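Open question from group meeting: does this chain pack into something compact, or does most of it stay loose? Before anyone orders reagents, we agreed to write out a predicted structure and look at it together. Recording both the input and the output here so the notebook holds the full record.
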Amino acid sequence: MPELPEVETIIRNLRPALLGKQILSSNLLWNRTLVSPSPTLFQRRIRDQQIQDIFRRAKFLQIKLSAYHLIIHLRMSGDLLVVLGGYQPGKHDRLLLKLTDDRTLVFSDPRKFGRVWLVDDPAEIFQNLGPEPLSDEFTTAWLYAALQTQHRQLKPLLLDQSFLAGLGNIYTDEALHMARLHPLTPSDSVTLEEAEILRMAIREVLEQGINRNGASIDWVYRGGDFQNLFRVYGRQGEPCPVCGSAIERIVVGQRGTHICPTCQALTKL
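Structure tokens returned:
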């Protein structure tokens, strides 16, 4: 958390507040937040850079500057917000960027897992990522062929960012339920028809999440209400919205996983 829809929502909220602004100075409050370059070089390079655009790649935020790219991964508890007026660092703030128009971009991260890069070419960060699930590249033919090349349990494979970039625990559980596939299903046993249904389910739950500004289920991410539409995630013991069976919680690949034992019966091993 946050996953693709939450990151997309954050970007959409930040874009109007940041585009065209110039970075006047930086204040790195926890050095390990910065992966590269060195803190001294970071402060020198980022100063006077203008923010030209903001993108998302998988769960990464990419801020295009006049000469560099600022890449941010929020991980478990990271958050970004723009504050107007004078700002004093908070307990969990890791990086502050002072901007023109008396604005400050604040990267807060209580658990300290979030990371920041300042690079010439973002490809060095993104080169091992799989395709975007909302891109034209994510076709049924691609998904079916990719599933057949692996012999892995379906959920851990979908969570593998080198296979498909952007899915996390929540939206994987939701998509698998919508597709009526058990998370332990061997990937190479998925039929072409099932791959088509799965592709459509992945896209649908992500688009629903974006339309609802993501899900707010803990103390970190704020503002979305997709949690009100969850089919299975976090609903252990509650009725399945399709068949009424009690939702179960199992562990798959060390991840808490929510399924309907009737809609997602495990028929392939």
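Observations to bring back to the group:
Residues 192-211 form the longest helix (20 residues).
The domain at 140-259 is CATH 1.10.8.50 (Helicase, Ruva Protein; domain 3).
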